[in-house]
Amino acid sequence: MFQSDGFRALERQECLRLLAKAPVGRVVYTRQALPAVLPINFSLDTDASVLLCTSRDSDLVRAIDGVVVAFEADEFHAEHRAGWSVVVTGRAAVVTDPAEHERLLRTGPDPWMPMRDGVFVRIEAGMVSGRELTGVSVHDTA
Questions:
Q1: Of 65, 103, 133, 141, which has the fewest CB atoms closer than 10 Å, so is most exposed?
Q2: Which InterPro entries does the protein's record reference (predicted)?
Q3: Cα torsion 79, 9, 39, 113: sign
Q4: Cα–Cα distance, 99 to 118 (Å, whole number)
């Protein structure tokens, strides 16, 4: 069997366009010296950074504030063997500026659960990469 890889690298702007359509992504970070992945809803800010909203006292905030993390979102259509994946890598930081926090209350992501002590976390879009699976063709060479 011969299988073409069917992957196409995506340019930064195309990655950001696709990322903006995704409702959920995954934060990849280190927790207690081990890799951890957490699904979370998000939005993109005007500077292309990824914005999260979570509880101020969450384990996530303690683990990622001030460190480099990865954020991934994707979409896949099994019946067509097609889809895309985008990864943003950059420093995460809790938004502490009161004016910025107020702006994000209007424009940022809505948390999944109501919270009184919500904070926004910004992940800088330092590196943005992505690829698209355009449909894998499988040929029987026997």
A1: 141
A2: Pyridox_Oxase-rel (IPR024747), Split_barrel_FMN-bd (IPR012349)
A3: negative
A4: 15
pLDDT one-digit tens code per residue, 43-95: 999 999 999 999 998 999 999 999 999 999 999 988 888 899 999 999 999 99
Half-sphere exposure of 26 (CA within 13 A, CB side): 14
| CA separation for the pair 92, 85 (Å, rounded) | 20
Instruction: State the Cα–Cα distance between residues 65 and 133, nearest whole angstrom.
Output: 33
Residue 33 backbone phi and psi in degrees, to 5: 65, 15
Q: Which long-range contacts (CB under 8 A, 24 or more apart) does 95-102 make?
A: 95/119, 95/120, 95/121, 95/122
Structure tokens at 32: 């207690």
For the chain, what is the total number of helices (H) and then of strands (E)? Answer: 3, 11
The pTM for the full model equals 0.87
Place of tokens 């500077």: 47
Q: Which residues contact 104 (CB under 8 A, 6 or more apart)?
A: 45, 51, 53, 95, 120
The three-class DSSP label of residue 1 is coil
